[in-house]
Amino acid sequence: MFGELNLARLKGFEKLTSIDNARSTFLKKLKLEKLQSVQIPTSMALGRVTAENVVAENDLPPFDRSAVDGYAVKAKSTFEASQFNPRTLKLTKNNKLGENEAREIWTGNPLPKGADAVVMLEYTKTRQNKIEVWTPVTPSKNVSKKGEDVKKGDIAIRSGTRLKPHHVGLLAALGKMHVRVVKKPKVALLSTGNELVELGRKPELSQVVDANRLILSCMCQELGAEPLDLGIAKDNLNEIDAKIHEGIGKADILLTTGGTSIGYTDVVPAAVNQIETPGVIVHGIAMRPGMPTALAVLCGKPVILLSGNPVAAMIGFEVFARPLILKLLGIKYEPRPMLEAELTQKVPSALGRRVFLRVQVFKREDKFFAEPVRIKGAGIISTMTKANGYVIVPEDREGLDEGESVTVHLFDKIGEAQHV
Amino acid sequence: MFGELNLARLKGFEKLTSIDNARSTFLKKLKLEKLQSVQIPTSMALGRVTAENVVAENDLPPFDRSAVDGYAVKAKSTFEASQFNPRTLKLTKNNKLGENEAREIWTGNPLPKGADAVVMLEYTKTRQNKIEVWTPVTPSKNVSKKGEDVKKGDIAIRSGTRLKPHHVGLLAALGKMHVRVVKKPKVALLSTGNELVELGRKPELSQVVDANRLILSCMCQELGAEPLDLGIAKDNLNEIDAKIHEGIGKADILLTTGGTSIGYTDVVPAAVNQIETPGVIVHGIAMRPGMPTALAVLCGKPVILLSGNPVAAMIGFEVFARPLILKLLGIKYEPRPMLEAELTQKVPSALGRRVFLRVQVFKREDKFFAEPVRIKGAGIISTMTKANGYVIVPEDREGLDEGESVTVHLFDKIGEAQHV
Asked: Model pTM?
């Protein structure tokens, strides 16, 4: 019954490739080169990715130290202390502690020899050159043991770790002034389309300002990649060809937007195939938005031909470029924040396509809800600015039900009981 | 029965203030000045916060345009088309479309006059200067209507929005070369302690490298604040006093670490109170870690005296400094990513204290689990590097149960079925 229509569709894409097959075909054809590493000051390392294991050259803490303000003691001197029968200990300033002796100690101070515990100031009372101890302490009580945080020779931070504030702090505590990180992958960005003008130029009738490069540039920056701007190319084979050559020469990944539909303007795939055959290895993906996305390999480097529609370009980046950038950085797994939410309304979908449904997640009475943002139009940027995450509708579902529990991948913060 | 012990505890903090009371007392005493704004290029705006509503000066899309590659038509010319009885339309290149006419159109092109819908290329067949249409389209089908994304005069982005890639894209699409953002709040950072040395200097016995300033500096950067480094001060009233003066003069917020316990070294609160009375308005908070945290106001500006223990300092920052920085930026609500997870083991807690339990969240078989990281030691940085989030144990709970569902506040990415 649908023979004719399918034939008609064939005029578009011979067949749509599933995302999973597209990814694996792509990865097999690519010759990804390991990025070089660079030594940078620890103070500049936030957000960078370690290129090697960071090994502790000394114990942390470097000595047994007090975790509180109080009195260093031999624990056994306090065993019989209680709130009814305080033990009296003799205050000393010696570097070596004897039985029934105590010495003032501050948080972070090394324990004097002979001491094995600290009584908190609050559980003591001073009486001239003596103190009363009102609570027993066990050995090691209130003591941070040498090497308890990190042991000399231990791997403190693994290779492939994106450095967060606490990692940078650990590097500092270990005395590491420098850290070896992966160089930022370079991602060249090219927009194509006769209708596009640069931001700052006033568009004439039938022209629009190019937003795609700036969006993708920001997405690269968020991941710790370095965007390279190739500008806008007209829908002209030679112009696009020259830009692609430039991009492949300079960058680790090349992203183009526009000119990928099987229409009158599928000039970008043609330009790619003119450079190397077969350049384009997948064209037409069973996803929505982003169906006209194409994947190509030139000189072993990945070239991702994204839709000219901003939202489709963002989703295409998410699905194909993001994992590659992370791979180049040496990061094994870095999903966006995810949460489970209850879908507020039924959503239709297309069997056989993976659909990326934009939703607004909000919290109400300690429960998370996901409200679908109007789906229409992969060109409608406000469907992204009104959303804060997306839900994946798998290929084998015709839609999602109202009240269904869904996993949301967050790309912006969660709102408080707000409505779309 | 605990009279004596409580008396002893009084020697520490007269009383512990709850976090909620501490916050509201603090906010009442502060005279937070609105930060100035600055106009910056849109291309530099990622992560900045809008200082005013961004109003669209034109419609987006600026004209009715095609959302697909295909043929512009009058919808009613196609109403009787079907896969069995295609309608034949005459191809034209005119700028005005008549009945039973069609004109080639690319994605993004403006609709010719008279056209109100687009038939996708896939549902047509060309026959010389005619096309066969195999499917009916309704008016507006495959058309992005003028102003459908954003209407002229609409608020496209609200004041107080942290700009993500899609916001920056929307600014570009609207032709905004510049955007007015809030100036970065300045946060002065001072570490205190005789035991501290700067990163890069070799610590002698009983010395440690200061990690706190670098950690807090990174936390500021993550929030879009500008850290100002005041260095390290010895536990000396005059030295600290001078640094605090410097910080208050330069910055919007001053954070100190160390020297806040009611011990021998509570020199920072003393220095603050020497400058203004009462400088310190809350000292001793019913939280763990971070109990010795103090809140002070100097010249109407917030001064937060954090613990010298790195983990306690981080949690103190999270609880008191983070909300202030967001408030200064004009952001109403920006929680960390949160998720619900199942606690893998029972955790004891202290009634009357709010406990910030570090956990490692991982996903196994589509379910999130939170595994508590060894709690001991607010000085143990690796309890943060091994964790990726924290769970709040409220004041009225003595602990959490194994298998209990908890909300995790994430400060790092989620791992895949990994164990602590």
From this structure: 0.93
